[in-house]
Specification:
It is a single chain. This protein has 428 residues and is mainly α. The chain has one domain. The longest helix is centred in the N-terminal third of the chain and has 28 residues. It starts with a helix and ends in a 12-residue tail after the last helix.
Length: 428
Amino acid sequence: MLMTNYKLKQVNNIFVILLIFFILFSSALNYTHIPYWFSYLKDTIIFYFGFLLILKRKQISYPRINISFYILLIMITLVSWSGLYYSTNTEVFTIISHSLRYIEFFILFFVFTNLEKLCTISYNKLIKLYLILSISLLFIHIFGYFVPNEIVSIYITDKFSHGFYRNRISIGQPAIAIYPMIISYFYILIFHKINVKTIIKILLLLVGIIIAIPVTGILSVLACTFGLLLWAIIKHEKDILLKNLTTIVSIVIILFVGILLAKSNLTLNQIYEKQKDLLEIKIGSLIEGNIEDPSINIRDEKYEQILSANTNTFQDVFGVGKYGYNRGEVNIINMENSYRIFRVEYGYLGIIMFVIFIFSNILISIYQSFKNKINEKNYIFISILFIVLAFHAYTLDVLYLPTISYTISLFYCYLIRKDFVNENTDCQ
């Protein structure tokens, strides 16, 4: 029996490594010739792990997270299915699969909390794999963007004239594609010892983030970088302070060198000019308010449509479930704003709990980073994890996207464990 259990854990090692690959590359897979059904492998693995935990239910540990997590889990589990009743324009399979994807976010908290009961692979190896693959994304994006090939060519034709993602160098939606780089950047910034190797990693990740021009992502990086700088000054964390200052200088150098290269090459200059135009639109729209951003206008129009589908107070308060607003003339699948999604699909109660979940974890983690002397870095990183989530929730359906939702559960459960102090966080 012991040997059988060990062999099962060995098989589970393969499954959990596959999950890491899906976290990093799920966005890019949409632009390859790999069939879409292949992506359901990750969902199968998660529910397989969930089934194993049910069998071991008397032995499992519960995620060490505040009660808003469990309330949100219950709310999503109960309300999502009402979309099957309300919606007349959405396929049943779509409603079910998207509802299950939300639930996967919570299942993975249980899976990664009980990783040692399911697998023999260590947390450190998974985090190390995540960091390595995050850095590799830079080269994958550059190769896939500039080099004609049969691997990442689907949907990408004549990028420069058609403005593939407005000439942002990214295979996949930029905000999603570079999300692992942002998380890895902050992890290395906080936990890795400062040396040449660490600086090179930071530079590579920053280059990958900047060339994709993910406006929301860049705003989250800037906010968290200066927040971390302030924290390091207050806590007298000289190592983090030095790495932070090095990062700020590095960003200036990368931008300066990048502009010089763009001015010296016709193709790069074409990309640079279109990226500059994009930034002007985003800044003018978000900050100055004197320029219209077509993407924001489209999102606003979608929101007005789905909001109009709620016809009574009950639906306003409790929501209409996953895609329950798709009835009559409304038929919208891709709504890129988590706050608005929760407002309509889970009602006022849903949006309140979603906001409480995010910001309570930010505040609790910041408080613990000052109170807990042993694991202070763990908590400041967790606060950054949720701050970045709060930014991305403004332009993405964060609980639906594996790259984001799986990452949060992996890093949170890794850092919050009671025995964490006995491990090496460098993962180098």
